[in-house]
Design goal:
Two copies of one chain form a homodimer. Chain A is 40% helix and 27% strand. The first copy, chain A, contains nine helices and twelve strands. Chain A has two domains: 185 residues, 3-Layer(aba) Sandwich (Molybdenum Cofactor Biosythetic Enzyme, Chain A), CATH 3.40.980; 82 residues, Alpha-Beta Plaits. In chain A, the strands form three sheets. Chain A has a six-stranded mixed β-sheet with strand order 2-1-3-8-7-6, with helices on both faces. In chain A, 47% of the residues are buried. Chains A and B meet through helix 1, helix 2, strand 2, helix 3 and helix 6 of A and helix 1, helix 2, strand 2, helix 3 and helix 6 of B.
Amino acid sequence: MWARYADFKQTLFELITIGYEILDGRILNTNSKWLAENITAMGGKVTRMVTVGDSIKDISSSIREALKRKVDWIITSGGLGPTYDDLTLQGVAKAINRRLVLNKTAYEMLKERYRMLAEKGVVESPELTPARLKMAMLPRGAKPLRNRVGSAPGVLLKYGKTWVACLPGVPSELYSIFDEELKPLLLKTIRKVFRIDKTLNIRKVAESSLAPKIEQIIRKYHGVYVKTHPKTIEGGISRIEIQISVMSNKEEHAIEKADYVEKIIKDIVVDMGGELEATEH
Amino acid sequence: MWARYADFKQTLFELITIGYEILDGRILNTNSKWLAENITAMGGKVTRMVTVGDSIKDISSSIREALKRKVDWIITSGGLGPTYDDLTLQGVAKAINRRLVLNKTAYEMLKERYRMLAEKGVVESPELTPARLKMAMLPRGAKPLRNRVGSAPGVLLKYGKTWVACLPGVPSELYSIFDEELKPLLLKTIRKVFRIDKTLNIRKVAESSLAPKIEQIIRKYHGVYVKTHPKTIEGGISRIEIQISVMSNKEEHAIEKADYVEKIIKDIVVDMGGELEATEH
């Protein structure tokens, strides 16, 4: 009756985060969550997130692995700044066998940026020192993405059929470049997919009792994804959140399918003696 | 004068998180941060974090990649529960070419658990249904790790020289199994490393001006890691957090080295006209 999941072709993304401060457990990787949320909302699918340290070897191996998996997009965050351990572009260049060359547009962006910072007295001189010039050294063929919030431009390039975008690790800079520079291109290239998500909160049914019935639904109705999240057991009453996702190339099909699956699951829960909690929609 | 970084051998970890809810951007990967923080505090080093979806293919490929890199430990989180899309153990079994077999100890743990849940009225029957039994099917040779908070036991096995530990995704269960079951083993096997971290907060020096001087220090004093984090520019004044980490096999060497490097950096900042802010130690 309904198309299989496999019938929907989604644009695939891998997110690579660069920075020892994440591997150390010093900071939470909120950049990946933010990117994933935005990509998912646009109809894209993040298939893997990887975090590596500020090491050319680890950065390039993570890029190479993602390229081998033939994803449509690789988005990196972190490691674009002026310091000796900002190594992302060196890692990317190594992975795709391209040289780092001075990019004129990036050079102009940085010249303008440091002229402004010097005027404001933030830096003592507008001079493009080697550390600052480093941010204009992009892999050959790459295009800089204007950074309206900080100094390091983002970087965009294509390798085979894969787009590679490198964004800074400072969240406000990442958000800005993504929204203003990358999003228009993403919206043009991402394959359209309509996805409907529904959440049911139920009580008094154990996840392990529900599991085989959910499995039957998934097997019967392809193109439907159902996940149960056990919540705390309070006063001997188990609570489960059920996430229903359905996807289709046509919006009306997705809505119809989601309503139908929701109804089936509600009926099962009630049949098992469970209770439905009120949910916001 | 001081030993090179390379002289310190650290126990290496890769963390693999399993779950589409992270790739979707629905939830933040706090488990990896928590694990990394604890591992770092014990002297271990997390070299990579990977998140994949609830797919046997993706789980097994991420395990295989980590095994190829010959890390000492792989710790997975998520995908151990009773539902059809809890596929971690199938992925691990596939990666290391072992069968899933009913583990007697895990079976006893689950029997005891569901007897207790049925007594409390949380589940209607203590019966070990196929979905519940699934949690006792471990890769051959694996050992279950008692879960005092939830149902699914953790799993521990060794493959070649690499330990593989699989923990549940529910944070409270992950914390409990890590602290009570895994930590004693980790403390026994992790190579001792003393690490001193210092943080300096400075003002009125631009990161790009400081970068080349920091680089000189790193090149001169091997075994020392310095990272600068630019903070917001407020009213035209740039602020930078400088993280200094030094490591050694001997505690007194680490302390001595850290004090020395801190002094050098403070002198440089003052020479450049910058200011030091008060820092908590």
